[in-house]
Design brief:
Largest sheet: none
Strand content: under 5%
Shape: rod-shaped
Radius of gyration: 24 Å
Number of domains: 1
Number of strands: 0
Keywords: Coiled coil
Distance between the termini: 54 Å
Length: 107
């Protein structure tokens, strides 16, 4: 195993949950990256699709798109909340450092 892949694994364990979720996007249960979806296997058949099949496929694709969009928006909100928390922590640390610096200068 290369050092890059092992360091990538250890880094991902340190990432916040939302960032890890974004970096390691999971597919719906029962579907793998190499497996064609039922819609794709229908379009690759030798028979031309009729209007009803195309409308059904379009409806399914729209549903999948809306689901992906909803998940994306949730992940963005979660990342923004985590960023706000990190900003608060940073500000608290800056104030603490400024106090320490001020106390050293007074003494």
């Amino acid at each position: 195993e290369s050092p890059a892949s092992s360091s990538g694994d250890s880094l991902s364990s340190l990432l916040p949950k939302a960032l890890s979720a974004v970096l390691h996007h999971t597919l719906p249960p029962g579907q793998s990256r190499n497996q064609p979806t039922s819609e794709n296997s229908t379009t690759s058949s030798s028979q031309p699709l009729n209007l009803e099949q195309l409308q059904t496929e379009l409806t399914v694709l729209r549903g999948q798109f809306e689901q992906m969009k909803s998940q994306h928006n949730k992940e963005i909100k979660q990342l923004m909340n985590e960023l706000d928390e990190e900003k608060k922590i940073r500000l608290t640390l800056q104030v603490g450092c400024a106090r320490i610096h001020t106390n050293k200068c007074i003494v």
